[in-house]
Amino acid sequence: MTPTGFSPKASKRELWAWASYDWANSAYSTLSITVVMLYLRNVAFANSDYSGAIYPATLAISMITAALLSPLVGALADARANKRWWLAGTALSGAACALATGLIPLDAPWLIAVAFAFTSFFFELSYGFYNAFLPELADEQSMDRVSAFGFACGYVGGGLALVLQILIFKFGENLGLHTLESQCRAGLLLMGLWWGLFSLPSIIILRDKSIPRSRHMAVPAAARQAAREVATTIRNIRQYRILALFLVGYLFYNDCVQTVISQASQLGQELNFEPQELVLVILLIQFVALPGALLMGRLSERLGQTRVLHICLAVWSLLLISAWFIHTKLQFWILGGVVALVMGGIQSVSRAIMGTMTPPERTAEFFGFFNLSSKATSFIGTGTFAVIMYYSHNNVRLSLVSLLAQLIIGWLIVSRVHVAQGRQQALASSRAALNNPTADTAAP
């Protein structure tokens, strides 16, 4: 796996440095759904009425807060051309909060929950700045493969971090970790150290390539200008109508995909999977998603981004339908493998499409909207799943298949997206900004 020859816009060193952040933060992705959930539910809040609700509640609050702030701080980073410093601040702050989550005494459980909420908040915020570097590192021809390379590195990094945690659970007593509390604390320290350490190449090597518009402006004034730019973007959204259409479609199908990933374990439990077996399924998904992301990146270059997105959505539709017929552990393992192949592909090609239609000088702001789109309605998929579960007396298969409607709505919307036209709209906006840098509105 090498980024050699991916893009004339970036060196091999820059591409590896960029992808290293996906490797770094993926420790949060895999350990939060295993170690953190276990620690909050079975240790920190074990004797509380909130034991089952505290993890999803803190996660939801932090995610929607970060999503709402993403366009604003993104615009501020674009104006001052300092995405690298924002990435450094959010990444290292998130890593520090993960360490704090594992170090706070158990007699302050709410402080533990707050520390995790900030961990999740900084993770979500940092991802927007990381994504915003993509259009600066890849040209239109290499966007798909570079995006896929980043996701592939993330799947390996997250998978290896999870393997280390499995070893901590299995051999913890030999290391002096005799209780679930100590083993989970070790996992939280692993999350923070992994995230912080492997973020350093991105922080040290990456440089903003855009021209600052307000470097010498005081921070409060720059923030006010950033807010005006975001408001202007929203008012003039018709000038980015193709990109806006894509974001609406992405909002629907991505929420469906994320709900399936987060709730599929309930089907595994119905099939009598042990917790250790479910963790192994997560590992399978992590490592199979690696070649899946790379494959979809190459297919995007050959067939085009839109066609590959349609292929991924078609496979996801079949997966949701097939969930109704899953009755054995072997079938569930096969389902997990197919999910892994298209999970990385749909995420990678979606990010590449976004990068292709983003104005070069406003990458952080627009990827902030991308982040907002992926989180703003995150309650719809899980809410639909929960309602169907309740009224169907915990019929997991019916709940999963019911998500098909949401996926098809998103698919129908993005079927009207013409990426080349969206790219032209982005370039027209950039030319207008270059010709009239003091204007508050973009050119039609």
Summarize the structure.
With 444 residues, this protein is mainly α. It is built from 17 helices and no strands.
Layout of strands and helices, then pairs:
Elements: H1 12-44, H2 54-80, H3 83-103, H4 109-132, H5 134-137, H6 143-171, H7 180-205, H8 219-235, H9 241-270, H10 275-303, H11 305-322, H12 329-356, H13 363-375, H14 378-391, H15 396-402, H16 404-414, H17 419-435
Characteristic terms for this protein:
78% helix, Growth Hormone, Chain: A, 17 helices, disordered C terminus, mainly alpha, 444 residues
Taken as a percent bin, the fraction of beta residues is under 5%
Radius of gyration: 21 Å
CATH architecture: Up-down Bundle
Superfamily (CATH H level) name: MFS general substrate transporter like domains
Counting helices, strands and paired strands, the structural category is mainly alpha
Continuous helix count: 17
Dominant shape: globular
Describe this structure in words.
By secondary structure, this protein is mainly alpha-helical. The protein has one domain: MFS general substrate transporter like domains (Growth Hormone, Chain: A), CATH 1.20.1250.20. It contains 17 helices and no strands. Helix 2 runs parallel beside helix 4. The longest helix is centred in the first third of the chain and has 33 residues. The protein is globular and about 65 Å long.
